[in-house]
## 1
Amino acid sequence: ETPAEAPAAEAPAVNEIKDMVSQASTADLKAFSDNLTCEARAKLVEAIEQSISPRGEKNEVATVEMNKFDLERYTEPDRIIAALKHSKKPVRLVKGSRIIKLWKDGGVLARRQELPEDFFVSAEEVMKLWDESGADYQGRTGRKGNLMGVLPIVVISFCWLSAAHCDPEGLHLATVATALEREMIKYAEVHTQFDTLCDMSLPTGDFNGFTEVAVFWDWASLPQKDPKLWHPCCLKDEELRTEEENALVTRYHQSRSEEETESFRYALHETMDLWYAHQCTIVYKLTSLPKGCERSRTVEVQDVHADATEADVRELFSSVGTVQTVTMAKGRAFVVFEDEDGDTYPGEKVSDRTNRCVRLAVQLGGSSLRSQPIRVFGKGYDDSGWTTFEGVSSEQIKKVKLPYVNFKLVLDLGVAEGEETRSTHRILKECGWNQAAQRAWPIGPDDFEVMIETRSFTNGSDKEAVKTVFRKASTNQLGGVKHLNFEGMAAPSVEDGRRLGRCLNFCVNLEFLGLDKVGMSEKTLQALLA
């Protein structure tokens, strides 16, 4: 049962558990908790925290083992299913087949509240797809789903292309639908591998395929505001708006009901650590912005002097290109350039497809505006705080290579299939991207918080939320993990070594660390051990 569906009179049950806890050993509690659902485990943890041992002290060891380092939250399928079963449905997943059809019909993805009911996949349907993906054979009992632990869930990591609508022209839709159409053929394939050394009748790995996939796409999965009511004044702070603009902003915010807003906040704070970081989900990363879209021509200017005007901002940035619009906010400004090609300028060497005006504008960071230094951010995948969180989270504990099947758990849709080299993305460069293994060296919560300070958020308050969510996920993953194997990854840099060392400080339950065939230098090893 979800918390909202639990019986009203639960105090006797909790008291009964408390009595049991006070008499049980830590080992007994750990063994018992392994067989519980996440909701039941949460109640047990609550009882542990409230219980008093025979010596009059809290059972703190058991609390740490089962509460602080909850690795299973990011490895067990039931945690995802529990989030989907919440009575208020803060998160809904959409059918991959419907996304493909919508694209082929020339449509644009509507917000969740406006999608037809048959667009969605229920938690029960997701569980059925998962169950049916595993083979039934003699000797296999008590286990459902495929042995690899992969769920039929695809998570989309992308940048919104406008403040009102995530994809107003269906440009992201085309990218995602094309990938789904290609990958769903792979997902549907049946794979079985038999044990050639022991019993040929028993498979060591099996995958019966997925007939459908459920997609987490925030625009369609979470309650959203009505894009038709959005106005540029929504970017302004209240004290900078007129009464008429305040009325427009109020109307826009009210287009998502209080109940829907509550569900949205719950999804943001209680489930966003799951979708990208969970070991069983598949992540599509849209790391390239569609050419010519407004976001690809936009920069965000921060630390703007209170007395600075739109004319001041326009004059400064006109030196790098033709400015289309400037929108002022408190301490910030958003500059949109006219559409220009992404050609390099004399002496410039770049490997990405960022708009040329944006590349030049970012170099104005540190310039003075009304005698105050400013910071300038692009609006690409690697510049955004949320997509930085999503990208780093998706690389933490997902398997690099799956046995028996032909698909990957993390796909970069900004790179053509089969392309051996990758555009220079700042996230991956900072994290030590390994082209061969397609996996980044891990980054812990402390280093992530340093990284996120150089990223932009449309809603400034989201920065602290992202830090909290990532720390929750990373601490649980690193604190609970027993085996870390980096065999075959590209040689880590000295900074990678330092970050790995700081990650290992969180790994209090680690039993095995594999660094074979990574070519680690002596300096990197010293940094790791420092």
## 2
Amino acid sequence: TVSDDGDPTAYHDDLPGALAVSIASRDSQESDNNAETPLMQHKGGKTVGGRKAESGWTIAESERNALQQKQLKATLDVAAVAASAKLVARIMMDRSYWVISPRVYYMRWWDYVTMVLLLFTSIVTPVEVAFIPTAINLLFFINRTVDFCFCVDIVLNFFVAVPDPVDGLLIFHHPTVIRMYLRGWFTIDVISILPFDLVSIMFDNEAVSKLKILRVMRLLRLMKLLRILRAGRIFQRLETQFTIDYSLLEMVKFGVLALICSHWMACAFGLVADLEDAEFNWMKFTSFRVYHESGKLGEGEDPRGIVPPMEIYVAAVYWSTMTMSTIGYGDIVPSTCLERVFVALAMLFGAFIYGYIIGAVSNIIATRNAKINRFYQLMSELNAFLEEGKFKPDLRVRLREYFKYRLSGGDVEAHTELLKQMSPALRAEITMSMNTWITKVDFFRQCPEALVIQITMRINQQTFPPQEKILVPGDWCDKMYMVRKGIVICRKKILTTGQVFCVECLYKEGKVAYSAHAVTFAEIYWFDRMMLLEAMYYFPDMKRHFQMLSLRRLFHDEVMSYAKAVNTLLEQGAAASLADQMDERPQFYLYKLRLIYGKDGAGLRDDRRQ
């Protein structure tokens, strides 16, 4: 299909953007492939089809090459059709009214509640299975409340938009949301809310409860721990809504990992003794001195039912912490073969976790303090430089204060690298929100966003200590300055964050007749006239507009120089002189006026009277 004027790409304009690009790309590749297809025969080195046949080419090789080109074309066609079909299907999926965004404020609060419930499940459930007998009490009703909340969460997941695994965009099409949840986490979520602890209550009989099968079925209550898998999904939703220090987050994660592993290992140690139900186990030979001294508990007697479950749990945590930290006092020891096997595995697991956490935390600390480590290295080099140069003590103090201040300042190069990695739309939005000084310069108010981005990507930064001169009268200047941080005085005006000076130097470079100095430590952004002209290379309209503004500025300065020369000649006569002015133009016009009206300017006075 081609357009009326024979353009084979014109029909792409009526298609969605990505689809048109996909098909246009395919057509481009096909045309290139067709242009490069060597259809030739070997005829004694003669030219066939506009090309000279090389020795060794045969009709069979030419046909095989043509077949390969057709296969490549077919592959491109299939890929383009598949991509186009997927894009069209995505466009046709309407946004369902009942599907809500996971980023709304009430979903955020629900995520907080869910995280608290997950923390409760990860802590209470193992303790309940290993040490606490099942009964209808306050904990039973709390568990039912938690189960109900997770049932609500399952229902809610059928109405919450999900991210597309390919492009990351949220999908609000209700049938798609339901299908993706059913194929994903639904089964695990349902298993995790089944009330397996009701089995123990149904067989609440001393004789029946001692059956091995019922003891093993208690392990099914640990299925609640599958709920913890929800934490990853919830964290992904919360991760983009808050400012997170990832190095600190990793430290917290490793701390939680150590606590959870110790907690679960202690519960597993208690569960082994309960499931084995041997005549001798670690609980019977653990010293609970208070109960032994009072006569409530004899040597080798089962402490369960006499010692509160939480005290037995604390003893198990004490053992698991010793095992993970590789200390091992030896006052709690395994008594059966199964317990020894479990303890051996626990020691291996604890040693691995302990080593992993120590190594990972050390790496995080080194990475977290990278900037400070660079500063320490820089200060060491500075101190060596100061010792070698024999500088005065006050200069040494000022230099150390200067570099210490720079440590706390921003890094414009790092910010520029971040901007380069952003998409054009995000880069424009960030640039316009960060650079409020743009609204203070007449020229930049009319600039397109693309030009502003080009300028800000080339901006430079410089730090000035207190009372240091930024400009002095007579300095040649072709830069515009912007105060990023600190206080600057220029032309008897106090400039703070976001204010600019030396704007006129962008239009006309030359000597400045005023001074500027830093009152406090000041971080200054600047870019020069040449940098601005290079940025405007691809913006011819703005370049012409800038030239007009430059001409206006030049005309204004020339008129002011001429007026100053006229006033000086009228007031001082033959003694008039403007040689001490930083700008040479008033002196130039004074010289011209004397050539026309005389050295004392008498002719000028006559003209003014006439």
